[in-house]
Specification:
With 158 residues, the chain is an alpha+beta fold. The chain is 27% helix and 30% strand.
């Protein structure tokens, strides 16, 4: 299951070129997330003050800005460039925040941002991802992926 997620920033004036994130939510990643959610729930039974846990994770394929200017010499690959923003608009990502995209959905390298310190945030009923755009003093975070979507992805076979 290939998904695009809306991204928010800790800085209201900048997002480091990270408007959205692209994730290939494989059955393996979904199963790992579900195990971590179960563990968090068990920990919450022992200590009700626990709210979320963080794990180093490099699962997000890229953080990107579909409206970033492409250099003139970059080839336009089918389904990329300005089409990326059009596809996301059609899927109403601004309202839905998490959308399934076609398996062929690709983001051109010129629209991707370099990020560091990527982590998976595990909550009682969802996960999200966070990172720091390179050379930025801010943190970005994806919309939450609900447990129902994780369960569907974990049950899927290729």
């Amino acid at each position: 299951m290939r998904i695009a997620l809306k991204v928010t920033s800790s800085n209201e004036y900048s997002n480091g070129g990270c408007e959205f994130a692209l994730l290939d939510l494989t059955p393996e990643i979904a199963a790992l997330a579900l195990r971590r959610i179960r563990t968090l729930r068990e920990q919450k039974n022992l200590d009700p003050d626990i709210d979320e846990t963080y794990f180093w994770a490099y699962f997000v394929e890229c953080y990107f800005d579909p409206w970033a200017e492409s250099p003139g010499d970059e080839k336009d690959v089918e389904g990329t460039s300005s089409a990326v923003g059009d596809i996301l608009d059609e899927l109403e990502i601004e309202d839905n925040e998490v959308v399934c995209v076609p398996e062929s959905f690709q983001v051109p390298p010129s629209q991707c941002s370099v990020v560091e310190s990527e982590q998976m945030i595990v909550r009682a009923d969802s996960i999200s991802f966070t990172a720091i755009p390179r050379y930025a003093s801010l943190r970005v975070q994806t919309a939450e992926i609900p447990i129902t979507m994780l369960e569907a992805a974990a049950a899927a076979t290729h």
